[in-house]
Amino acid sequence: MAEYLLEMRGIVKDFSGVKALNGIDLAVRAGECVGLCGENGAGKSTLMKVLSAVYPHGSWTGQILWNGQELKARGIRETEEAGIVIIHQELMLVPHLSVTENIFLGNEITGFAGTLDYAAMHQRAAELMRDLKMPEVNVALPVSQYGGGHQQLIEIAKALNKKARLLILDEPTSSLTKAETAILLDIILDLKKKGVACVMISHKLDEIAAVCDTISVIRDGTHVGTRPMGELSVDQIITMMVGREITNLFPREEHPIGEVIFEARNVTCFDIDNPARKKVDDVSFQLRRGEVLGVAGLVGAGRTELAMAIFGCYPGKSSATVLLDGKPVHIDSPQTAVKSGLCLVPEDRKRHGIVPLMGVGHNITLSVPEQFSRFGVIDQAAEMQTIEKMIRRMRIKTATPMLAIQGLSGGNQQKAVFAKMLLPAPRVLILDEPTRGVDVGAKYEIYKLMMELVKEGMSIIMISSELPELLGMSDRVLVIGEGRLRGDFINNGLSQETVMAAAIGQTET
């Protein structure tokens, strides 16, 4: 019997002559969890797409050994039949189908004359839910009835139903709460005990440290090293990933903070599904020139809705009075917000930040088409000059500015969205979860950029679920709880405990 369940040897994959993978090796034993680490664009997801035959045999060079035998899979069905199942960062569930139907999609149990045996499928689905510590899930209901945490675990149930021997988890906790993340990590530990192997891609290195036995790091498509987790600290993993030591993850610097330039008064948003309920309830705040204003709160507190209402894009009923330099500004759409000097980097870049099939460059200039228009004709040379300048400034890794932006890694897509929102030269920049799904190196670059912008006099509102990030970068922190403003703290020795106490509506003792 082979020592390794999986071996990938010398994997090379290129796109239009650009090597995304250049001789990568990876080995995984049964019951082992390997953490695959690297910056955005390092090649992690590409390597996993090679393994799961999203990129079929023949479109890359090298060798894959599965249980000691060479694997030459031509498609995902072949790798799944072998026992290799990938769970992508974007969940592959059909919202209007039931939990059972999603779990058995393409793998249905049939009875007499080929009819679907729903009783058997419901029973098996319920068993899987119990195994995953979710006995309360009604498997007959549509998956749209359940939140992101439940849906992530339903994806795992779907994989286990395919008798997965190797589970590939690509950023599995990126949209989960802390409690949901804890459940998922426990499940990974249970799967290891049952002999299921895992490859976990995550930028949350504390989670990698909690469940992984081995760490394999790749940088710019090359294999940096593989070491036991027990021999590494989180700081050492970061150094391997970025090729340099980052001693201070939050490069906050002293910068002048001026007069109040922006004010939001009486911001109120009504729940789209239940108009009698307020998602944001009469929130008012001020923002000063050159200030980083952090916005904290639990998931569902109303932070994103607050930002959307100010930016003129809340999809339901809302009201707000917005003042810039003490003068009221009428904002009823993102277009009027941008023209007024207010820009937003949205929480969900896939849905609200990019046009997936459009080129990287045209995504960047989408916010200011008038800058390149002369008598109705686009000055392509001027536009390309601006595109190349922003790609250099943001260090966006792309083979060409014309590459469809969906071909970029998540971190590089995020940098492109930043570039798009900086082109209008806003006076107030709203960042909603700006580093979600972004590696530590790219996070550091985003933080450095924030410091450059506030030194130039721009004001930033940063919404984040990561308290260390908020406390590491903000001058002042607003706390939102159940749609209401529960705290406004100067960040001078401010603790996570104080912020959390305000978020849950309790006075810290």
From TrEMBL:
Keywords of this entry: ATP-binding, Cell inner membrane, Cell membrane, Membrane, Nucleotide-binding, Repeat, Sugar transport, Translocase, Transport
Pfam families: ABC_tran
InterPro entries recorded: AAA+_ATPase, ABC_carbohydrate_import_ATPase, ABC_transporter-like_ATP-bd, ABC_transporter-like_CS, ABC_transptr_XylG, P-loop_NTPase
Keyword Membrane in annotation: yes
ABC transporter domain sequence ranges: 6-245, 262-507
Keyword match tRNA-binding: no
GO molecular function per UniProt: ATP binding
Protein name: Xylose ABC transporter ATP-binding protein
